[in-house]
Amino acid sequence: MAFKLVGIVDFNGQAHCLDHASTVSSYRDEIYSVDPVKVCWCGTEVGGDMPPVPYYNRMNDGIKGKR
To answer: Whole-structure pTM over 0.70, yes or no?
Structure first.
């Protein structure tokens, strides 16, 4: 599993999404996609491992043909 950088935390403890990371001159910590969810000052949630979205739902009830 690759860790994807999704935000940073400044020295005041405020999270910043990557869109607003350029507004911070120096930061204390990086937020990766598997880290607990933090909220940027703009309201965007950063971090938190999202469960994978299934591409399809398998029907295994034994009924063949049209549904």
So the answer is: no
